[in-house]
Design goal:
Elements: H1 54-68, H2 75-88, H3 90-96, H4 99-136, H5 139-145, H6 157-175, H7 181-211, E1 215-217, E2 231-233, H8 234-253, H9 259-282, H10 294-318
Helix pairs in contact: 2-4, 3-4, 4-6, 4-7, 4-8, 6-7, 6-10, 7-8, 7-9, 7-10, 8-9, 9-10
Length: 321
């Protein structure tokens, strides 16, 4: 029997039930008894952590830079700037400062920034770097000869204060406006001269200990061992003069002093260092002057340099030079 058309019969879907699709393999659906110790655990999903907006970072950075660059400087800008600089520069600072010396240097830096802004601070930073480098020259030899500074040249608070006392006085005179605008530049000159004096003294002493072939007592020109109080050498003296010239030139480039004032700073530093050598040879470590230690002599030295520079400038102004 032939059929003209093909008849089809559709079975309902429930007649042949569909098999469920197998789940893709993963460690999470693997049977527990088959999981190896290396299988990754099922950690909970991380919650969304809000991101700090870029605009907030820009605003914070811009505000910090505005505070640092504020002119005239304020106590707030001075403290903030020193915190930032001391944190960033701490690896270098700890090589030349003890912990207590670090704190004293922070106070000095804050005072300097408040009085003379970033240019004055940079001048003191350069003084520190050159002085520390000179102190480290041939340190092993100095230690063996017993002429090295305490703590292998790491300065304590006494040394920091002894090296900056005159500069701090000039800073306070500037902050409180003593003498008015007419004296403002004189205090700045005294500040620069004090650090030129101290740097010249440090470099001449340390280079003299390291390379001085013959050391003479400044009062009698008698040959004495290296490291003797009041002793000088040609090598150390030349190095000290060069150091004072370098720092005076830096101060001039930073706008702290003029060209003629820079020359005054160099001359005043050498006169003061000669006076310091005489004091060391005649009085230091002598009976009745046990209180006259290195820190006390340093204060006298830088004070002489600062005062001599101010007096020289006043004399030149009175002579209309």
């Amino acid at each position: 029997m032939a059929y003209s058309t093909l008849h089809t019969f559709a079975f309902p879907s429930s007649f042949f039930p569909l098999k469920p699709k197998p789940k893709p393999f993963s460690f999470s659906n693997k049977p527990t008894f088959l999981r190896s110790p290396l299988s990754p655990p099922n950690f909970p999903k991380m919650q969304h952590v809000p991101r700090v907006s870029t605009s907030f970072v820009h605003e914070a950075f811009g505000g910090a830079m505005t505070l640092i660059q504020s002119s005239p400087a304020t106590w707030k800008s001075a403290v903030f700037s020193n915190i930032f600089i001391f944190l960033v520069g701490s690896p270098i600072l700890v090589t030349g400062l003890s912990l207590s010396g670090f704190v004293a240097a922070f106070l000095l830096g804050t005072l300097t920034w408040r009085a003379f802004s970033s240019s004055g601070f940079l001048l003191v930073a350069i003084y520190f770097l050159i002085g520390t480098a000179a102190t480290k020259v041939k340190m092993t030899q100095k230690v063996a000869q017993g002429v090295a500074e305490k703590r292998r040249g790491r300065r304590g608070p006494g040394s920091v204060i002894g090296s900056s006392a005159a500069g701090c006085v000039c800073a306070f005179l500037t902050i409180f406006g003593v003498g008015g605008p007419a004296f403002s530049q004189l205090w700045r000159l005294g500040f620069v001269a004090s650090f030129c004096t101290k740097l010249s003294d440090t470099v001449s002493s340390e280079i003299g200990k390291a390379y001085g072939k013959t050391t003479y007592l400044v009062t009698t020109f008698k040959v004495v061992p290296r490291g003797t109080e009041g002793a000088v050498s040609i090598e150390g003296t030349v190095a000290g003069i060069v150091a004072s010239i370098v720092l005076a030139v830096v101060a001039c480039l930073l706008g702290e002093v003029g060209r003629y004032e820079a020359i005054i700073c160099v001359l005043a530093s050498q006169i003061a260092n000669l006076g310091e050598s005489i004091i060391g040879a005649v009085l230091q470590e002598k009976e009745g002057f046990q209180w006259l230690n290195n820190d006390a002599v340093n204060i006298m030295n830088i004070s002489m340099g600062s005062i001599i520079a101010v007096l020289m400038q006043q004399a030149l102004q009175s002579w209309h030079i």
